Amino acid sequence: MEVDKGKGEAEETRKVAEADRDTVTLKSSDGKLFEVSKEAAARLSTVLAGMIAGGSIDDNGTDLKQIGSEALENVVDYCNKHANSIPSAALISSSISFNTAPFKEPEEWERKFVDRLSHDALFDLVEAANFLGMERLLDVTCHKISEMMKGKSPDQIREVFNIKNDYTKEELEEIRQELAWAFYDD
Amino acid sequence: METSGGDGEVSGKRAKPSSDNAGGGEEDRISALPDDVLVHILLRLLTPEAARTSALSRRWRRVWTLLPELRFLYTQDCRQIRAALEAHEASLRCLFVGIRDAAPDSVAAWLPAAAAARRISGHLVFHNIERGNNAQEEAEERGAFALPCLERATTASLHLGLLGLAVPPAGVFARLTELSLTCVGIHGPGKLGHAVSSPRCPCLRKLTVSDAWGLDNLVIHSDSLQQVKLEDLHGLRQLTIVASALKDLDVTRCFMNNRKQLVASISAPQLVTLVWDDLYDPSFVHLGEMEHLQSLWPFFFLVYGEDSLLHNHACLSLVRRFKTIHSLTLALHYFWEIDDFDYLMEDMTMLPDITFFKLVVSANGHAFGASAFHVLRMCSGIRRLMLSFLAPTNVEVKLPFVYPVCLFISCLIMT
Known about the structure:
The complex is a heterodimer of chains A (186) and B (415). Chain A is built from 11 helices and 3 strands, in the order H-E-E-H-H-E-H-H-H-H-H-H-H-H.
């Protein structure tokens, strides 16, 4: 940011101070404040990057009304851990031509990061990652959820995620027949 | 993976008050997620598993049909793929199909559905795992399926496990930029060369055809191709390539087992890299002007052998075409048994001016100092030298197949 120092207006000084800070303050829905490195926030979240670039970051805590303090703490924790981790070779070389794997596998620390979360905390984090446009964190959390579904029957999946079966018996039978191709290798 | 997933669940449940279970009041968090996040989750499952989520609840009924990518691995029944493509609604940026021992008619049952009806807009990958016995006769018995015209696909990689591919006589692959056909029998009615040439593949930049039968005469005219790799085209007799934008050409082991009536004509004025790991003789291989050529890899040179070997002639006459070459790769090869053979290094009397020289030696236990020194003595102007040594192999049987597998041992930089 180019600032004409000759003017010396208070407003300008405040802006400079804001631009010079290397952290941003985020405020959760329940009013708690969290500091996160501006660089990591801008790199990992398209929404925060947009807010930083657009100058809509509030020094006293940018309101993120959709995100609770526990989820925001996890977001900030993830950003900090990400900033300190060295990306593996697999992450750097991403030239996929005829690759079968659609996504980059989570790093070991990322696995541990989501494995320690409770069921609700995991879903709070998915929602936060989606809201903040954090592609990588969304990848990691969705990977975790897909792992919880893998190799399970519909009944088992319903149990894991508390999904209520609102089909009638007839409807369910119809689906099974329509999707026989998907069921027959059970 | 299973373990960590399991642990996660356990700890997740442990973290909640157990009384919740009794009232059945635990929240269904996953069904509340927006469609695009659910798609993100289901993308990580194979397609049949993703489709089975239809049975969870009404919320899930059609989520899987929004998937932009479908993946089938180790499917033994192609009908599964056809049924999936018929039930699926979104356009596909990727269709990946891995099958074991697919029969041609079963492939014909899903591939056209994918191309015409489902309109793959991105990548098509089809990998048919063969039974291991790669006898050509068997491949012919298994018949061919028709390659549909992939109008919107941008890349296609078909490893056919010896299935036959019937090339369509007409139709434009309008957006295709990369095509790879491996382990395949090429059938009519269309000609492969015609199908990959500019009028029908106007955007094709990279073409790979490897381990293919049935290509007797391959004629390619392309303004877009930048990279062409032809490897083990069994039975190829005539090759014509006219490609104004071609930068990399790799012809490997296409002519070496078929020494009669060979004709090759290459016109690629922009060529930068030429690997001609194959028989070469100016009387039947016509290479046009290649002013921009920087890197050359000719056929290998046998250090001991019978006099006037085709290999050595191929190697030397191609190298002789050039007065200077920025980067030359030369492979020196020793048979296991050399007692009854002549020392042939004296046939090599000169090399072009080289800047970067890569010498690949497969010595098979023999002392290679004399031959290597013979070569190095002739290239006093080199600025970088790389020596690669290949591991000993049972060369008499596998000679054509082993030496590109470079066991790189040392790299020496000279100034």
